[in-house]
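BACKBONE STRUCTURE TOKENS:
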Amino acid sequence: MDYIFHIIVLVSIYTTLAVSLDLVAGHTGLLSLAHAAFYGIGAYAAAILAVQHGVPFIGGLACGMSAAAALSVIISLASLRVHDDYFAVATFAFQMVVLSVLNNWMELTNGPLGMAGIPRPNVFGWIVQSTREYAVLAACVAVAAYWVVGRIVGSPFGRVLRAIREDEILAQSLGKNTFRFKATAIAISAALAAAAGGLYAHYITYIDPTSFTVLESILVLSMVILGGAASRWGPLVGAICLVLLPEILYAIGLSPFVAAQLRQVLYGAALVAMMMLRYRRAVRRPAVQI
């Protein structure tokens, strides 16, 4: 049973990551490759505060979310000047800068050696010890992330984000401050990703920079695309598929090398299929009203 609850924890953490990225990539149309950077910022903030300063889980989570939201201003400023593929390049650069800091700032992050001894969470007196309890906590965070993003995209604010995705110049001509809307969406997305990072750090109890590379950003983006960008249950479906796929390949007896190669082939085939399906739907998509 612990194995099943472990999978639930991973699905919940990646669902939080995917639904937060979907707010930016799916609903706003900004292709970001820096989500693992915010994920790592949240993880390291929670770990450093808990291990070195004894800050409780909730405090570390809040600080990590605040730090990620503050640093998201860098990407927001990039979105003011560049668009489309150039924005993706700018977020990739931010991702590499953050990864370099995690690897080289030995005094703060312990560099490539990572940080160990991260305590299990204490949530208002509830010490989360078992995998079952952590599955409940991670699922609650994923539900909260779904609720926050759902409230945003269903509001007039969300309609402006979709208008920016379809035609930013038109949205500007209607008097909308598109930079403010994009910056807010990026900050909320970054904060939710940092919350997932704090959960991950306290669950694994050891983190190092290899968990927050650009490949992790691509994995989360793949979940969004595979499940269907800007769809209600897309992030959950994508997270379930891409978390369970490696486990299924190992379960049928494939060697780790063969499973890793086959997983990449299946990822690519699934992404191509979903992109073709989404393109056909986009052709029939009605105009956005704001």
